[in-house]
Every structure is written in C-alpha cells, then in structure tokens.
Specification:
With 142 residues, the chain is of the alpha+beta class. It folds into 2 domains: 7-36; 38-80 and 94-131, Immunoglobulin-like (Sandwich). 15% of the residues lie in helices and 32% in strands. The protein has 2 helices and 7 strands; from the N terminus they run ααβββββββ. A 4-stranded antiparallel β-sheet has the order 1-2-7-6, with no helix packed on it. A 3-stranded antiparallel β-sheet has the order 3-4-5, with no helix packed on it. The protein is flat, with a radius of gyration of 24 Å. 10% of the residues are buried.
Length: 142
C-alpha cells in the first residue's frame, strides 16, 4: 500500500484501535448490550405469529408478558446463582432485570394470546387480528 501525502499508510488505524479499546472497556463495565435483552425470533404463520425467546435460568414467577397495540413486551429478572465461593473468577452470565419490546409485523388479537415456558425457552402465540388474516374474495361471473 502506498503512503498518502502525510506519509501514513492508514491515517484511521489509530482511531479504529482506540474505538476497539473503548468498546472493550464499556463491555467489561456494563456487559454487552445484546446480552441485556434476551434473543428472540418472530415467525409469521397464516393465522398467527409465534415469538420464541431464550431465557435460560429465568424462573416463571419472574416473567411478565403483555401486548399493547402492535408491541409485545417481555419483562423479567435473572437471579444470581447461589454458589458457596468467596469471589467470581469469571462472570459472563448477566443477572438482574431485563425488558424486551418487540414490534409485531401485523396487528394481533390481544385477548387470545397464549404463552408456554419450557426448558428456558418462552413461546408466545399471537393470533392475527381478523382484519389482518387473508380473506378469499368471491368473483361473480356476469
């Protein structure tokens, strides 16, 4: 690679290095942002939506689910493990409260929402609102 007019091959190299170091500092203090919110998948069927979220270690009593408008809200708390040791050597699993809001792609019927929690995976089935379901239109012959 040829040097530019200042004699530096990559003038942004040091800025990118500083950015990586700052990201590492924030991750070590606050944790990774993705870990704070549980990862979720949204599947669309013909008549309903299925939302699945990975919530390992969360007790059922600590979960709260609600639907407001076209948004699914999932709240809960991960309690810390009770281990008879004096200090952590490494702590990567986050504890404490979490909140996840998922904007749904269609309107749903909030009165018929159902949820299951099995092996640390929350599955929420949200029936589509009647006006969102496909409707067959009859064609008359004249």
């Amino acid at each position: 690679m040829a040097a530019n007019r200042w004699g530096i091959q990559d003038p942004w190299r040091e800025v990118r290095q500083l950015q990586r170091e700052m990201e590492g500092l924030f991750e070590s203090v606050f944790g990774r942002h993705e870990e704070a919110m549980p990862p979720c998948n949204v599947f669309a069927g013909e008549d309903d939506l299925l939302v699945t979220c990975a919530l390992p270690g969360v007790q059922l009593e600590e979960l709260n689910i609600s639907v407001i408008g076209d948004t699914l809200h999932i709240e809960g708390e991960r309690k810390p493990e009770e281990v008879e040791r004096s200090a952590y050597h490494r702590r990567e699993r986050r504890t404490g409260p979490f909140r996840r809001s998922i904007q749904l792609p269609v309107r749903v019927s909030a009165t018929n929402v159902s949820a299951e929690y099995h092996d640390g995976v929350l599955s929420v089935t949200l029936p589509k609102a009647a006006e969102e379901k496909p409707r067959k239109i009859e064609i008359r012959v004249s």
